Amino acid sequence: LGICIIGILGNMFFKKKYYYWITYFFGIFSCAIAGSWCCGKVLKPYQIARLIVFIDPNSDPRGAGWNIIQSKTAIGAGTLFGRGFMQGSQSHLRFLPQQSTDFIFSIFSEEMGFVGGIVLFCAFFAILIRITHIIRQTNNSYSCYIASGILGMFFFHFIVNVGMVMGIMPITGIPLPFLSYGGSALLTNMLAIGLLMSINGRRLDFKTTL
User: How far apart are CA 62 and CA 75, in angstroms?
Assistant: First the structure.
């Protein structure tokens, strides 16, 4: 913090460029320290454990890190073409908990392999591209906002769910659209698709309103 203050004063009085960069870098460092201290006071122990496990799953391999370790094992075990439908050991031997909800992508990758994962990625990419096309075609601002929100919802759910099972994002309870088990999630996704179909069918019925 003291270095940041010196950098700010130096930039104000001497107008040297390096004072600006000193303030910039040490300001980020100070904010990170302050943020970590605040998180330690605000976050609950299990939430802190999730962040620690995200960085190093082997710090608690039989506790908080169990899920992500088994998830990576399942994805890696699928190799190129997978072990086959209903042939995954991680799922049928119950090594991976929550396999039908949060970690459905891990089971899918184990049974269908890298090729199946790529096909799934392409399917979701096609859905996102189609929603983008609907947004560009509609002439109604309100419909555009609704479609944009649905696009953000699908994109966020897909990226976070796939990212957490691969270990590149912290583990959260976000389902994978159309694949994770759960009636409320499936109903919400179906309603969103219905809204998109309605917006696309009525895209020329309204004038643009700003």
Answer: 19
> In whole angstroms, what is the distance from residue 107 CA to residue 71 CA?
8
Helix (H) or strand (E) holding 73: helix 66-77
Both tokens assigned to 14 = 């001497």
DSSP 149-182: HHHHHHHHHHHHHHHHHHTSS----PPPTTTS--
One-letter amino acid at 35 equals G
> Which class for 74: exposed (0-12), middle (13-18), buried (19 or more C-beta within 10 A)?
buried
Q: What gap in Å lies between CA 147 and CA 141, rounded to an integer?
A: 10
Residue type, 9: L
In angstroms, rounded to a whole number, what is the distance separating the alpha carbons of residues 196 and 210?
20
In angstroms, the CA 167 to CA 191 distance is 30
Query: Can you read off the two tokens belonging to residue 164?
Result: 């957490």
Tens of pLDDT along the chain (210 residues) come to 566 666 666 666 666 666 667 776 777 777 777 776 766 666 677 777 777 777 777 777 777 777 788 888 888 888 888 887 877 777 777 777 766 778 888 888 888 889 999 999 999 999 999 999 999 888 888 888 999 999 999 999 999 999 888 888 887 778 889 888 878 888 999 999 999 999 988 876 655 444
Is the whole-model pTM more than 0.85?
no
Give the residue among 180, 176, 78 at the shortest CA–CA distance from 127.
176
